[in-house]
Specification:
By secondary structure, this protein is an alpha/beta fold. It contains eleven helices and ten strands.
């Protein structure tokens, strides 16, 4: 079975690369920027290029969808670069093409807060896609960089779907009917994703789950089944939002960035300054097949399980990573 994870944020080292490789994953969308500017992002890309040299027996970069199949053939983990914010392009639309050529395939238009492009899900007022955002969407469409609205607010997300000439993704979020987290998505957004042939990756991050860390695998898989009935089994996949090997200071940095001198506790609790505990059925990449078994247990066919666990992402990437001029 082809296994693809639509989002992870891991402090990678050889041991973790080995664990991902043993899990059978053929591709992971890895976060390489949250609040970084262009110079800091280039440093991150440079560090990843060293990973590709030092761990060439375990990982390889993904530049086109066919590379995922090659990674599977070689028994390696394909690495897809993505941003959880638009900060790396700063205020310059030309950076989109430059970063695409350096291997960046996916970019969120906002991360919780208002950005230069769109409104984040934690803002009280949602102004939608900005003038600059419209130009960036156009350029992302042209070069073949996927628009990700996982942390964006409702109006901004719906406008991105409408404005974009290519399907967008929500790489890591769950339906709000399952759990009313600010980051989870309404039925309106879900239906718009389905109708526009976009993709939704289901998150195992505890703050996005009903009952948090105590969410059960049957509950999670039944939520997937209900979403499949709503938007179609061809529009869904896994985006685990797995976070590993970080201390709590990094969680504070993810939420607070540079925009506040205080601490934004976001979905967490100030009384519990720690990363949330993963549900016991998904402690890491090794449990991807546990999820596949859970899908079988709630009635999915083998064909549909293969779609959800990887084939849908592969098909979406095959249409999305190409520059517009390369599409027939």
């Amino acid at each position: 079975m082809l296994l693809v994870d639509g989002l992870q944020y891991v402090n990678w080292n050889r041991d973790l690369f080995e664990k991902a490789q043993r899990s059978g994953l053929s591709a992971i969308h890895v976060t390489i920027a949250y609040w970084e500017n262009i110079r800091e992002t280039l440093e991150n890309i440079g560090n990843w290029n060293r990973h590709f040299i030092n761990h060439a027996d375990l990982i390889m970069p993904i530049h086109q969808a066919a590379d995922i199949l090659e990674a599977k053939r070689l028994g390696k983990v394909g690495i897809i670069f993505g941003f959880q914010n638009c900060s790396p392009i700063e205020d310059d639309v030309k950076m989109v093409q430059i970063l695409k050529r350096l291997g960046v395939q996916i970019m969120q238009l906002s991360y919780n807060n208002q950005s230069l492009l769109a409104t984040g899900c934690y803002e009280e007022q949602d102004g939608g896609i900005t003038r600059f955002g419209r130009e960036v969407i156009k350029e992302m469409n042209r070069v073949g960089m996927i628009i990700d609205m996982s942390h964006s607010a409702e109006k901004s997300t719906l406008e991105a779907i409408e404005i974009s000439e290519r399907p967008i993704a929500i790489t890591h979020a769950n339906p709000s009917f399952f759990h009313p987290a600010l980051r989870n998505k309404s039925d309106t957004v879900l239906r718009a994703i389905g109708e526009s042939e976009g993709m939704l990756g289901f998150s195992m991050y505890p703050f996005h789950l009903k009952n948090g860390s105590d969410c059960t695998l049957p509950e999670f898989c039944q939520m997937i089944a209900q979403t499949a009935e709503m938007i179609g089994v061809g529009r869904i996949g896994i985006g685990s939002d797995l976070c590993e090997n970080w201390d709590y200071s990094v969680l504070e940095w993810m939420r607070s960035g540079r925009w506040t001198i205080g601490i934004d506790h976001g979905e967490g609790s100030a009384a519990n300054p720690s990363w949330p505990r993963q549900p016991n059925w998904f402690a890491g990449s090794r449990d991807m097949l546990t999820v596949a078994q859970g899908l079988e247990d709630v009635g999915f066919t083998n064909e549909d399980i293969e779609k959800i666990m990887g084939q849908n992402w592969l098909s979406f990437f095959d249409k999305s990573f190409q520059a517009a001029s390369a599409i027939c």
